[in-house]
Amino acid sequence: MRPFLAVALGALVIAACVGGPVGNSEVPEPAKPVELSRYLGLWYEFARYENRFERGCEAVTAEYAILPGGGLSVKNTCREGSVRGPIKVSEGKARPAGDDLGAKFKVSFFGPALLTNYWVLDRGDDYEWAIVGEGSGRFLWLLTRNPRPSQAERDALLAQVKALGYDTDMLRYTQHMATP
């Protein structure tokens, strides 16, 4: 009976993570190679498709660093409820998924048994922005190096998201403090 319960619980966890509307039924493959050394560091979430694990989060950041034994550390930080709310931190690990462009990763916040896809679908030439998703079209993140990109930067990023086939009406814009 125990193995059955473990499988059933695992299925429920996976179902909870993949539920939600699809914003792109034909997710594209990543467009550009990702040079890991340039992708590392701090990113600010400009917008996202709402998801269970970030519900109510503002001032969201993601920070990537090389781990001593290989792979990447992933540190996601948010403020619960408002830009001044309590801090919530989730730490995980990522590893390259082996694609030719180096733009696909496997990420886990719950140990190696629950790996999720993380695809850098597109990025700025100077790594000033990144569009991140995965194969189901249910998850999408727009990341920038600046917590408050200019209107021109926001417009260009949204145009690129739309060009990739994503429903921009599903985006939830993340609030950040005037000064991080």
UniProtKB/TrEMBL annotation:
Record keyword Repeat present: no
UniProt-listed Pfam families: Lipocalin_2
Intracellular or extracellular location(s): Cell outer membrane
Domain of life: Bacteria
Keywords carried by this UniProt record: Cell outer membrane, Lipid-binding, Lipoprotein, Membrane
Record-annotated Lipocalin/cytosolic fatty-acid binding domain positions: 34-175
A GO molecular-function annotation: lipid binding
InterPro entries: Calycin, Lipocalin_ApoD, Lipocalin_bac, Lipocalin_Blc-like_dom, Lipocln_cytosolic_FA-bd_dom
One Gene Ontology term, aspect cellular component: cell outer membrane
GO biological process: response to stress
Classification via SUPFAM superfamilies: Lipocalins (SSF50814)
PROSITE patterns: PROKAR_LIPOPROTEIN
Family per record: Belongs to the calycin superfamily. Lipocalin family.
Complexes and interactors: Homodimer.
Task performed by this protein: Involved in the storage or transport of lipids necessary for membrane maintenance under stressful conditions. Displays a binding preference for lysophospholipids.
Protein name: Outer membrane lipoprotein Blc
Organism, as annotated: Phenylobacterium haematophilum
